[in-house]
Structures
1.
Amino acid sequence: MKTFNTTGVCIPEKHYMVDISDKIADIRKMVEEEKYFTINRARQYGKTTTLTALMKNLLDQYLVISLDFQGISSAGYKTEQSFVQELSRLLIMQAENGLPVPLNIKSCFEDFVNRSDNKAKMGELFDVFTKWCQASEKEIVFIIDEVDSATNNQVFLDFLAQLREGYIRRNSQGIATFKSVIFAGVTDVKHIKSKIRDDSMHKVNSPWNIAADFDVSMRLGESGISRMISEYASDHGITVDNTFLAKEIYSYTNGYPYLVSRICQIIDEKLVPSKFDSLAEAWTRNGIDEAVKIVINESNTLFESLTGKLINYPNLRTVLKSILIEGVSIPFNNYQEELAQMQMYGFIENRNGVVAVANRIYETFLYNLFLSDEIMKNNIFVRESGLSKNIFVKDGKLDLRLILEHFIDSFTEICGPLEDKFKEKDGRELFLLYLKPIINGTGNYYIEAQTRNQTRTDVIIDYLGTRYIIEMKIWHGDSYNKRGEEQICEYLDYFGLSTGYMLSFNFNKKKTTGVKRVSVKDKVLFEAVV
């Protein structure tokens, strides 16, 4: 029986995985076009799995040299000789494991490894590569994984310069060299010029400016996720709505390969019998919500890396908080180092020219992180809702009208009347702080990105299989409120719900605060005014 895998390479014969044959075909086309390029994606984005599948796909026509630079220690980058020797050692190991290396070529690599007085030079290494390419019956494709370990070293720049020279000579002089060179790592090798300094100057010219852009999407699409779940269900003899489940998983992950596999792995391995009586019950929206809750609260390398970057880039923390809490729109700029770095690490993306958090799981993690700053200060709104949380849950359902009523009472008592200095983001943050202790450990919440702006924000709560939609906004008059009612009704239709909630912050001195029930078309709305 196959399993879901979140550590190491995914193997189709052993693991449930999304079919990536279309992506491999696109990458193979780049190889056939003799392109040199870098597959740079975030951590655990399926790079090594993709390279493994690509190598198998290419073997029918090409000789593939596939190395992993994790096999070279930091000492291997200290000098030109040590690098040449370490690279030669890896190639010898490949030959011993079945890579068809001509004996005269292998003896050259062995000579480099054994040298002590007559130091091995980069140019000599590439002379050997040229001889190998000339003698090989098949064109050679050179693949190097985990290239990040090399990118802070001058000797690696020299290695790139030699590859670049061979590429140019191939086109201008017909000199034999590699058909294609592929690097894989988090770092885009084209941009490493900004990471290396010598004593006199910043490196200005990239030694890898010959590389083609890698535009192949490595996200896992809904249709692929659906087919994977269908295969799993068939193997386990259960009936599931694989199309619906794939849509839900994609909505949380935006196709991030690790997060897709991790959610499925948790449903398969952890939810029965602790949360559900059977796999069929676990493979539902409730099961996905439970799995997401576990992912968000577990310790993993993705979240550790994210929090580390926020520490290193404190200004970015402020930017992300303003996007998520305040609904501020931040233009994306590739030349802003903090944004470029966070995009490279997969935490944010350029969405139609605007900075956006990469997926809903990251968003929820960041909301929890930002709100925890206030929780650690023993925020009074957190205390108030925490003391009353038991009255807000009845028969496994949230009494959201009661939550809104108590929030209004607490807000009025603590903050007094609204004043002009009050900002909408303050209300959003305070309500989320009030809400969090009530659903903590049982439910999830997120802010709908499509409606998150400075005039309107929709909070969506998943609690024990039931969804609740709350629109938060500043009061701008009756006509504006009518439009808000129409908008939330459309949103309720999208989710198949009949009841919605509105929370308005009203500055009018003659306003009536509280919660009232209104009917709009076939919907019931509870409208709360602070």
2.
Amino acid sequence: MGEQRPLDALTGFVRAGLPPDVTGQRRFLSRPDIVTDSYESRRFLAPATEDRPQTEFFEYHWAHLMQGNRLADLWPTFRRLLLKPPWLVPRGLRGVWLLFWALVGVGAWALWVGPLSDLLPDLGLKAWISKLLGSAVWGAVLTFLLARVGTFLPGVLTNSFVDVVRYLDASPRSYAVRHEIRKGFVELLERLHASKYDGKFRYQRVVVVAHSLGAYIAYDGISHLWGTMNNRASKDATGAPDGLRDLEQAAARLLPRGVKKTVIREQIDDFRDAQYKLWSGLRAQGNRWLITDFVSAGTPMYFADLLYTRTRKKFEERVKRRELPTCPPQNEERSREPSATMPSFSYPWRGRRVLYGGAPFAVVRWTNLWFPCWPRWFGFFGDWFGGPLQPLFGNGILDIPVAGNGWRRRIPGFAHALYFKFPDDRTAGSVTRHLEDALALGASNLAPTDKQVSYALDLLGRNGFRTRKMNESYAELIDPRLPVPTGTVREWLRSMTRSEISSLIDDLSGRRTG
């Protein structure tokens, strides 16, 4: 967001999102960055605890790529919003819309019949004002006023929103900037997936957290990377991944995207459980996709139809073409049963079911947080740029209007910069508590699925390891710092967590293909 310095956002986020240990401290260490080319970046490492595996945090810093921004870049978008009726203006910006037109009305009244009406008595004020309002001069005056007002607003507001408009600008001036930002983030995700330590894959799960414009960037990066990894699996993987049917059933129970009716939280929770189960099923088949969660905070994606495509109709067209992934995904285009009530997110390929390239949110859970504006219809107090995403991006998103953190969440506009500023407020409604719940850092401690255990047993046999009793021939697969477990191989595998057995499956698959 804005012009933040490297590590500023990461430090604030770790202090807010990392749950404290039993002593009440958030312990993390600063280590050299091992996956990016940045000399400014660092890797923060939180040691393992009883209920959380070792966790590492990385920051994608892109502010240095967004240079040459001008507040005037905001004017075309701002002008479009001003000329819309209030019910079509994003809810968080209606207060600004109302304030602006109120000031214009007061100014017109002052010149027309008010205290300024006698300043230019011989120029025909009514005709002069009419011409002025309809001319390019009026646009220049508003641009000048906007630039002047911007000098009194916090830089985090003007910089953040100008960055959003610039990133989504389709002009040649912004193309190279957008390309480099997207490319850098995709490369970071690819390196996290490929990173190894002592010959084994280093990470078993990735959570992407993004604020403001960062959510647009993260959405683009996740969507692009999924399109290159969705069909990967080991050579002997067959059938549908475990959890696919559960996901499609849970998705069918969600209301259609965009319907103006509250979705039952229980339905969303069931869908999110099915997403995690399907993610585990993909890993069991040998797919290296690691991203389980996407957490957005204070993002203007809630009026993406006005920024991405300028109109809701064009936005819907891109959704139907699967260019803009939703949660749940749209039906797979090649479905042979268009009249079926059950959604289908996969297609047959080489003896198995493959999730299609526009369905990253079949496995990536999406949580969205924002400080809602008050009053409800013409809100001015709160975060102007955050809002609900379900109407545009799907009812599978867990939208959370943050109700805690007291009066500070009501600071007009500036609340946009406060999502990681409450590390010590862990009350039920606090944004910090919601962040901790969304990260679910203890989720990797879930027991493995039956399909993972069976697949790991099969791979052990194919790699020449004995699978009746534990013996030293495959003790090398276990962390040498830990005691060698006793019992049957199946018992050993069941004692693992899902992330640990996924790592074992990765290692065994690599031995077969290496």
